[in-house]
Amino acid sequence: MVVKKEEDLPEHHFSDVDLQREWKIFLDDLQKKNTVLFYAVNTLKVYKKDENIINILYPSDSVKSEFEKVQGEFFNHFKRKVNNYKIEVEYSNDVTLKKEIVTKRSIFDKFVEINPVLKDLDDLLKLDLS
């Protein structure tokens, strides 16, 4: 058995385009296998930060922990695909990635902030905003 030293491993160049293409393929496969995990991981943003550094922006710690379940699958495939085994991963929390679920009630409440008379109208007509 031949054991290679870490400094002997290939370190080929890859572009952000390569990364984005493989990320999309990974998400497509994940959607077919595990839709719940897909919807969590789909909120991540992945981009090349430096020559061998990939930055992952995540909206919450729960999304990060869900991704950690499948990150090995993605990065092992990606390292083989681009023939670069010195890739490092950095995580950054980015709360702007959180997706707010918009309901009829939340839209109505925003309009009530703008025009409080709508609240009286709702009380009078008993609007169904469920």
Write structural notes for this entry.
The chain is 52% helix and 14% strand. The chain is an alpha+beta fold and 130 residues long. Strand 1 and strand 2 form a beta hairpin.
What key phrases describe this protein's structure?
single chain; 130 residues; alpha+beta; 3-stranded mixed β-sheet; 5 helices; 3 strands; elongated
Sheet with most strands: 3 strands, mixed
The backbone outline, from C-alpha atoms, is elongated
Stretches with pLDDT under 50, minimum 5 residues = none
Helix content: 40-55%
Q: Would you tell me the overall average pLDDT?
A: 86
- Which strand-content bin applies to the residues? 5-15%
Provide the spatial order of strands within the biggest beta sheet. 1-2-3
The gyration radius over C-alpha positions equals 22 Å
Order of helices and strands: HHEEHEHH
Q: N-to-C terminal Cα separation, in Å?
A: 65 Å
- What would you call the structural class? alpha+beta
- Total count of strands: 3
Per DSSP, the total helix count is: 5
